[in-house]
Amino acid sequence: MNYISTRGGMKAQPFSDILLEGLAPDGGLAMPESYPQVSAQMLESWRALSYPELAAKVLGLFVTDIPADELATLTARAYAPGVFDSEQVVPVKELEPGFALLGLSQGPTLAFKDMAMQFLGQVFEYVLTKRNSTLNILGATSGDTGSAAEYALRGKRGVSVFMLSPYGRMSAFQRAQMYSLQDENIHNLSVKGVFDDCQDIVKALAGDLEFKSQWHLGAVNSINWARISAQVVYYFWGWLRSTTAAGQKVSFAVPSGNFGNILSGHIARQMGLPIAKLVLATNENNVLEEFFRTGIYRPRGSEQTYATSSPSMDISRASNFERFVFDLLGRDGSKVKALWEQLAKEGQFDLSEHLPRFQEEFGFVAGASSHQDRLNTIAQVNEQYQTLIDPHTADGVKVAQAYREDGIPMLVLETALPAKFSETIEEAISQPAPVPAHLAGLADLPQKVVVMDADVAQVRRYIEAHAPR
């Protein structure tokens, strides 16, 4: 399995090469030359596998330059007992028959990002050790990616992390999780701006090929293909635990900000997993919902990006969306390149001629949720099902309700535990969210963070001063 760029300007490369690269040299994103296909017979043979075993099988279809037995060792370490709170790693939490949460928040930072990051931490160290090389991770986070990456990579040999986050735009719990880490290889940079400003700085530095090469820059944001492929695993897992026979369909509802999580569902569907609908749920920053409703992609500027009570989705320019457009346009890199050039000049593009294909061919439907919707949904789920959910998962549950179908299970991807967003939980149910015992003293720990302007040059200078040579 080799990888090409969504913009057509990169020669095909194996997994381990694109793992360390982040953005492709032409500014595009790495994609497999073709999607591996999974037969009904193969699916049935996977039913009895544990999560680490299933991860080795699914990832083995994408990672062909690491021996199968060594890949299985990496997934066994990533999803080992004690790393995740559940023995199953990803429990299916039934709310009522045919309606359940896919429990992706059992990891060390209580967010779905742990699912991919724990694998990423293992595979980074493996490849860097094999190559006797080092890597400086440059990333942006709206809340959960940063802590998941830092917890997965802290103390790892050959890796340093420089993580940009929007100043004042994350919950107190999210800040404490990230900034309390004192490891020498972890650097938190709090940027005076919104997530999109952080993401723009990352893209600018990653796009400076000389700087990128000199400082061995890599990525852990959802543009990293290893994360996307690791997330594909839990769609297979959810399907296997919600069906009893080949051919049965399942729908997935996915709270979406950067389009990475639901993109993995799209890939699973393209591989042959029987997915009926991929339900995209946004908050008030509904650029993606608008696209799937109208066919027009119109990202908003920083000043139009709302600060909401589901802050990890306060994103207006979804990095992974380009990968779906690549598939939508028949994998024509020149067309994708032209569209993104148009986007840079005009601020939008129109693919409304493809509108019928979104659902008919790819299964996508979409909806948006408001602050009041979140509060109502959190209260309703708590009262009706005795289950407490976080605001992002609440967006997913709210939008999923409109797309439930008889005979087709609906799995809502649980994106974080409520403890991370206790203020909103308290507003919804008049009591704070319980904090896991091992994190009870988190807010009292000293924090290590550098605040700076949303300025590419400042971040560049910081990396030059602190990155290992």
UniProtKB/TrEMBL annotation:
GO molecular function, one term: threonine synthase activity
Keyword Amino-acid biosynthesis assigned: no
Assigned keywords, A-Z: Lyase, Pyridoxal phosphate
InterPro entries: Thr_synth_N (IPR029144), Thr_synth_N_sf (IPR037158), Thr_synthase-like (IPR004450), Threonine_Synthase (IPR051166), TrpB-like_PALP (IPR001926), TrpB-like_PALP_sf (IPR036052)
Domain Tryptophan synthase beta chain-like PALP: 106-346
Enzyme Commission number(s) from the entry: 4.2.3.1
Cofactor: pyridoxal 5'-phosphate
Gene3D superfamilies found in the cross-reference section: 3.40.50.1100, Threonine synthase, N-terminal domain
Domain annotation Threonine synthase N-terminal: ranges: 2-79
Family in the record: Belongs to the threonine synthase family.
Protein name: Threonine synthase
Organism annotation: Alcaligenes ammonioxydans
